[in-house]
């Protein structure tokens, strides 16, 4: 049996469910998910292993209109550059917001890329059935997609059909990664993302968007079957630092406890998590700091 293999960029506006789709396809968490837009900042690689296929999905930051700092620009550049490096483009849109202005921007890039493109209309469980066909017809008028697949990433509706459509765009090729590998991200990156996810859940307004997380070290204690993790949370102002720490340290404790519980579940061991909060003024606009934190600028 010939193996079908290739790289697929998952691209779309913010909060359309790209990371939810990737995590559910792989059966494990490789990309963080929150109700807030612009959660994903980096290019996340997830590896799907089928009986006759290996599909390397590239989850990208959501396309948004505001590029007020270097971090936002880096996120958009990361998403758009993924189009150049893959074999197939999977555009995801939100059925509850089908006319998002960012969609037209992405479609214009699809025309330039000249690669097989599939449209996944996500969250169909949140709309009425009669709304779907006119929506599909509108997208057909905008661009010639290889396929348009209505899905619910959360409820696994239409996902098997989506996988089959993607496989139909791939060619026989090598196995790029071992069968037991689900992502190329390091353990330290996953740890930093889990911590950042909890910051998104527990803080409001601009706070989560002004935070970055850097893992200083991880260390195993074999005697106690414990993983010791030290990480820094970077913010831009002293007032943000106070909010992250919270009154009598309540907020940082809440963030740390939630992150520790999820890390213990993922890593399968007890975790001791030490969090420090540091002010790095205007880090979202500082090229050297962004590069140090792993962003492509």
Could you characterize what this model shows?
The structure is a single chain. 35% of the residues lie in helices and 24% in strands. It has 297 residues and is of the alpha/beta class. The protein has two domains: 4-172, Rossmann fold; 187-292, GMP Synthetase, Chain A, domain 3. Strand 8 and strand 9 form a beta hairpin. The longest helix is centred in the C-terminal third of the chain and has 18 residues, at 250-267. The mean pLDDT is 87.
Helix content: 25-40%
**CA-based gyration radius:** 20 Å
Shape: globular
As a percent range, the share of strand residues is 15-25%
Distance between the termini: 42 Å
Under CATH, the topology of the largest domain is which? Answer: Rossmann fold
From the coordinates shown, what is the CATH architecture of the largest domain? Answer: 3-Layer(aba) Sandwich
Low-pLDDT residue intervals, each spanning 5 or more residues: none
How many strand units?
10
N to C succession of SSEs: EHEEHEHEHEHEHEEHHEH
Continuous helix count? 9
Q: How would you state the average pLDDT, rounded?
A: 87
**Which structural category do the helix and sheet elements fall into?**
alpha/beta
| CATH class annotation of the largest domain | Alpha Beta
Largest sheet: 7 strands, mixed
Number of domains: 2
Please outline the helices and strands.
Layout: E1 4-11, H1 18-26, E2 44-49, E3 53-59, H2 70-82, E4 88-94, H3 101-113, E5 117-122, H4 132-142, E6 147-150, H5 159-167, E7 171-172, H6 187-202, E8 212-221, E9 226-235, H7 238-245, H8 250-267, E10 270-279, H9 287-292
Parallel strand pairs: 1-3, 1-4, 4-5, 5-6, 9-10
Antiparallel strand pairs: 1-7, 2-3, 8-9
Helix pairs in contact: 6-8
């Amino acid at each position: 049996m010939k193996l079908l293999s290739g790289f697929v960029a998952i691209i779309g506006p913010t909060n359309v469910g790209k990371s939810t789709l990737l995590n559910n396809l792989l059966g494990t968490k490789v990309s963080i998910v929150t109700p807030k837009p612009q959660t994903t900042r980096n290019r996340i690689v997830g590896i799907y292993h089928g009986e006759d296929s290996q599909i390397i999905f590239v989850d990208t930051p959501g396309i948004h209109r505001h590029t007020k700092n270097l971090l936002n620009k880096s996120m958009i550049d990361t998403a758009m550059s993924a189009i150049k490096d893959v074999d197939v483009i999977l555009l995801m849109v939100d059925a509850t917001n089908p006319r998002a202005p960012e969609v037209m921007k992405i479609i214009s890039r699809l025309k330039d890329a000249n690669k097989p493109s599939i449209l996944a209309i996500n969250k169909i469980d949140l709309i009425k059935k009669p709304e779907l066909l006119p929506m599909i017809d509108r997208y057909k008028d905008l661009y010639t997609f290889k396929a348009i697949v209505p899905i619910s990433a959360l409820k696994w509706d239409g996902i098997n059909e989506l996988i089959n459509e993607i496989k139909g765009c791939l060619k026989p090729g090598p196995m790029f990664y071992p069968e037991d590998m689900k992502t190329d991200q390091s353990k330290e990156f996953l740890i930093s993302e889990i911590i950042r996810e909890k910051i998104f859940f527990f803080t409001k307004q601009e706070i989560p968007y002004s935070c970055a997380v850097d893992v200083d070290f991880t260390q195993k204690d074999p005697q106690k079957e414990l993983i010791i993790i030290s990480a820094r949370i970077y913010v831009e102002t002293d007032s943000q630092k106070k909010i992250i720490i919270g009154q009598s340290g309540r907020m940082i404790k809440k963030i740390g406890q939630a992150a520790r519980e999820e890390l213990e579940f993922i890593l399968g061991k007890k975790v001791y998590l030490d969090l420090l909060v540091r002010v790095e003024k205007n880090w979202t606009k500082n090229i050297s700091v962004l590069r140090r934190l792993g962003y492509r600028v």
